[in-house]
Design goal:
globular, four-stranded parallel sheet, Rubrerythrin, domain 2, Rossmann fold
């Protein structure tokens, strides 16, 4: 392991890489992980990475695991970067790519943060894990817990989609819906914190404050994008933001490849939130401290985090990349979901379509040059939230098994 130290993001206290801390023991804030990049550069190179198979773990020197025998894997990472043709033509774009994170084992990018976090938990020898999640991170943790034989408790919102709940229970997790009842903040996070503090269960969410190790997983998306574009970074990368861990991980990944000399610069990073829950965008635009969003309401349940936990790293990434933070409405999110399905054959849940929705808004407002190279991150598969597409089943015709009926229906759909 090439970790030099853990450093508190608030008070600056430093701790040994071997420390069994999930947050700063002095002030309770996020611990950031620092690596010895000089030593890492002596081992990995572009040629060396090319020899390794696609996986989160091909970048093991840049991940915080000491004992490789404790690494768990379900085949996460190595997802395709798809060059869009039909959608790019429709939007008038020269170069549009889709990073298809739906290909991960449990159907979302959350497998990247969770696999790193739970592998570290496995090193510590802890047998009980807990998470707070809208569903995707919980499903991921439940799957890896099943693989390791760990006890897993998942606190999810009261309105979490049935599809996500069913997936969790099939993996054997104990799933608990948590009521909001006017609670300011995220009640599922409160329950995760209580379980950790009172019973010692390891917290494994997908954002950084409660466990520093997950943040390292999403870095690998930036590594892969860089490799897949032959180290010619795109002009723009659009990233959905809920708790902020995905954006922060992307920023750190591009920054590390820049430090190692693999890329010359980092792309403009764009943080996209739903207008029904946009605490980070509001704070960024108003240049004010982040405040908790009182009543999250959006079709994109995965983005309904009332507080952007890793906001400081998101702000840092926005500043350094000369990026943009923007909000989009639910109608645009659903339109983006439809476009990805109709033009690229990629079925995402609403949260996974937010990146394209952000691109659509910025194109409409003239913020993006259509000659630029653009990457959108499609973060979660549509089977996780079928309610959002229920309207597509309402008008399916029923016909007799006959030629006249066939001709009628083909004419109805203007196919003859």
């Amino acid at each position: 392991m090439f970790v030099e130290k853990l450093v508190c993001s608030k008070c600056g206290s430093e701790f040994s890489p071997a420390s069994l801390y999930f947050s700063c023991p002095k002030c309770g804030e996020r611990l950031d992980i620092f690596y010895d990049y000089n030593k890492i550069s002596e081992i990995i190179s572009k040629d060396e990475l090319k020899k390794r198979g696609p996986s989160v773990w091909k970048y093991t020197e840049l991940l915080p695991i000491q004992d490789s025998s404790k690494i768990i894997s379900l085949g996460e990472g190595g997802t395709p970067l798809i060059r869009s043709k039909r959608l790019a033509e429709k939007l008038g774009l020269r170069e549009l790519y889709i990073k298809d994170e739906t290909r991960n084992p449990t159907g979302s990018f959350k497998d990247r943060p969770i696999v790193v976090g739970i592998s570290r938990v496995n090193e510590f020898g802890i047998k009980n894990v807990v998470t707070a999640s809208s569903g995707n991170a919980a499903a991921s943790l439940a799957a890896y817990s099943a693989k390791l034989g760990l006890n897993c408790v998942a606190f999810v919102p009261e309105n979490a989609p049935t599809e996500k709940i069913s997936q969790l229970r099939l993996y054997g997790a104990m799933v608990v819906r948590v009521k909001r009842n006017g609670f300011l903040g995220d009640p599922t996070v409160k329950m995760m914190e209580l379980t950790h503090k009172e019973f010692g269960w390891a917290p494994v969410p997908s954002f950084g404050k409660f466990n520093p190790y997950q943040m390292e997983g999403p870095k690998t998306i930036a590594y892969e994008i860089s490799e897949q574009l032959n180290y010619q970074v795109p002009d723009w990368v659009f990233i959905p933001v809920g708790g902020g861990g995905l954006f922060a991980g992307n920023y750190k990944g591009f920054k590390e490849f820049e430090i190692l000399g693999f890329i010359d610069t980092i792309p403009h990073l764009v943080a996209i939130q739903s207008e029904g829950c946009a605490p980070l965008v509001k704070a960024w635009k108003e240049k004010k401290p982040l405040e908790t969003w009182e009543s999250p309401k959006t079709v994109a349940g995965g983005l309904a985090d009332p507080y952007t936990w890793d906001w400081d790293l998101v702000f840092k990434g926005l500043r350094e990349s000369k990026g943009i933070a923007e909000e989009v409405n639910d109608n645009l999110i659903l339109e983006a979901q439809r476009l990805l399905a109709r033009y690229e054959g990629i079925f995402v849940e609403p949260s996974g379509a937010a990146s394209l929705a952000g691109l659509l808004r910025m194109l409409d407002e003239g913020h993006i040059d259509k000659g630029d190279s653009i990457v959108i991150e499609a973060t979660g598969i549509g089977f996780k939230d079928l309610k959002s597409i229920s309207s597509y089943t309402e008008e399916v015709p029923i016909i007799e098994p006959s030629l006249p009926s066939l001709k009628y229906v083909l004419e109805k759909y203007k196919l003859r």
